[in-house]
Amino acid sequence: MTSARAGPADHPFRSLLGAAAIALVLLVGFAGLRGWGELAEARARRERLETSLEETRRRIEALERRSRELTTSPAALERLAREELGMVRPGEIVLMLEPARGAAAAAEVSPPAEPPPPPAASRRP
Question: Which of 5, 11, 30, 80 has the fewest CB neighbours in a 10 Å radius?
Answer without folding.
Answer: 5
